[in-house]
User: Fold this.
Amino acid sequence: LAKTTQPISMDSYEGQEVNITCSHNNIATNDYITWYQQFPSQGPRFIIQGYKTKVTNEVASLFIPADRKSSTLSLPRVSLSDTAVYYCLVGGDTGRRALTFGSGTRLQVQP
Amino acid sequence: KAGVTQTPRYLIKTRGQQVTLSCSPISGHRSVSWYQQTPGQGLQFLFEYFSETQRNKGNFPGRFSGRQFSNSRSEMNVSTLELGDSALYLCASSYEIDVLSEAFFGQGTRLTVV
Assistant:
């Protein structure tokens, strides 16, 4: 699976939009980009997945440029409850199920 | 529908003992994966089971083993416990065996080895 690089931590305030960028320079043609969120002492939770351009759901948006070497998770109007670690994962339908988690980005939302 | 259930939630064991952790996947899910999470190493893949067969294995010693039953429930076993085995053990279930299939994680079992 492609290696990913994310900022270790980010700070924000309630009501702001937060953008977390992930670099994946060696992404393969059949790889998708998936983001998970993890709260302390809980298992990760799926947020969003995309292949190219833009994907939006009720929680977040995912922006993927044409070269797909990076992606940006956008959280609109964050609240204190969005304080968590966010993981970017890259992988395809190769039959290998293992999710490879990097270090993730620790987002701290202040009041 | 019910989520992924892991039991027990907390466990304290002594070095040298063995431990068995249980995971009940979401109904209908056929894939169960196990992960170890520690502050130093982060989330690391242990192994994955699909239709009672181990399909993938991470880079862990043979003291770590698992199995899956016909109802998709899974257990993992750690023998000869070491202090470094103290961690949050997470189980994830999904319908298929590919990374595109959304994985649903349980709340984990926090194992402390003393």
